[in-house]
Amino acid sequence: MGPLDTSKLRIGAPPAFCTRVLTCGLDASAEADFEEWPVPVLCERLQRHLLDVALLPPLEALRFGPCRVVPGIGIAAMPESLRQVEAARRLLEMAEAGEDRTPEFLASPGEALPIVFWLWACRPRAPYPRLRRVLAQAHQRGLADLDELAQQAERRFEIGAADAVQALTALSFRIGGAEADSLRRIAAWALDRGLCPPGAGFEFC
Q: How many structural domains is the chain composed of?
């Protein structure tokens, strides 16, 4: 193996509660150096290649051009679920990636596509297979630990236990075909409004 294959992965995420389902155990991983920063700092560190991957909102991930995305893992929800589950909205708002950062057409009543709030954005030429494996393991640990995470939300944010569980289960922690379609629409919307460089878009690695 070359040096890039044996060095620790540099992984960054915001210090937000709802993202812990995707980062569970990374702080103790022998394969990763895990950092928590606000979104603007994550963007800057990813752009300077000080991180291999960062958990970002889609619009932030597009600001620097084409974005390589780790497939299968992220945070999304249907608009109707967010309207019905106030606790889920609160957790997303605390993470600075609530509906106010979402194109209006995706948040509209009756929209058939999910809203993607967070995705793993990679630097160019990152060690993609290792990233996919390590992040998938963290994802599985987080899904298995939802009850414990709900208890943490109850203590930290004064959300009742039942509401915390409902909030987490209202969110989807998977990026599938519908979420990929949603990301394509977001990219087209951002390009049309000049919010990202020409040629920007999402590509799954």
A: 1
